[in-house]
Amino acid sequence: MEQEQYVERSPTLSTRQRMFVNGLADGPNQTQAAKAAGYSCAHVQGSLLLKRPQIQRALRAAMESQGLTDDYLAAKLRELCEAVSMDDKGNVNPNWPARSRGVDILCRMKGAYRDSSLEAELTFEERLIRFDAGKDY
Q1: Distance CA 57, CA 30 (A)
Q2: CA-to-CA distance for 90 and 93, rounded, in angstroms?
Q3: Full domain range(s) for residue 42
Q4: Which phi and psi (to 5°) does residue 45 adopt?
Q5: Is 20 in contact with 37 (CB distance < 8 Å)?
Q6: Can you tell me the distance from the alpha carbon of 38 to that of 17, in angstroms, rounded to the nearest whole number?
Q7: Distance, CA of 27 to CA of 48 (rounded, Å)
Q8: Which long-range contacts (CB under 8 A, 24 or more apart) does 59-68 make?
Q9: 1 and 58 co-located in one domain
Q10: Are residues 103 and 45 in the same domain?
Q11: In b/e form, how buried is each residue of 28-43, taking b as 16+ CB within 10 angstroms?
């Protein structure tokens, strides 16, 4: 199957980076997209690539070219957060697993979760200072 070309030649992206963005826009996850673009250690590289501003810009442009604008995505996320399902008797009930997933996505987008990788970088003394200040734990 030939890969769709959402991102054309770009002076800011290498050929493999462009292949990664196009692969990700086609739907696989970041690991599969990195592997298809020829990166070794694709599970690590995919994550690192997504942190690069030029990749983020290219991915946003690719998504918008397919109609996946911020407004569209926000509407779909709202639908997920308000999801309902119908039981055997025809009663409409909240779909709690879907709603929970929607809230989780929102929290991740808004940075509501603590970054545990930052805690690993703190020294014991810094943790004590944060604890005494009431900023952590």
Answers
A1: 16
A2: 9
A3: 1-68
A4: -60, -40
A5: yes
A6: 10
A7: 18
A8: 59/21, 59/24, 59/25, 61/6, 61/7, 62/6, 62/7, 62/21, 62/22, 62/24, 62/25, 63/25, 65/6, 66/6, 66/25
A9: yes
A10: no
A11: eebbbbbbbbebeebe
Sign of the C-alpha dihedral computed for residues 71, 60, 63 and 116 taken in this order: negative
- Measure the CA–CA gap between 75 and 92, rounded to whole angstroms: 21
The domain boundary, picked from 16, 50, 68, lies at 68
- CA–CA separation, 18 and 8 (whole Å): 8
Which parts of the chain fold into alpha helices (H)? 15-25, 30-36, 42-50, 53-65, 70-81, 96-110, 116-120, 124-132
| Cα 126 from Cα 128, distance rounded (Å) | 5
Q: How far is C-alpha 122 from the chain's CA centre?
A: 26
Q: What is the pLDDT along the chain (137 residues), one digit of tens a residue?
A: 455 565 555 668 898 999 998 888 887 788 999 999 999 888 899 989 999 999 998 888 888 888 888 888 889 999 999 999 999 999 999 999 999 988 888 888 877 776 655 555 666 666 667 666 665 44
CB neighbourhood size of 5 (10 A): 13
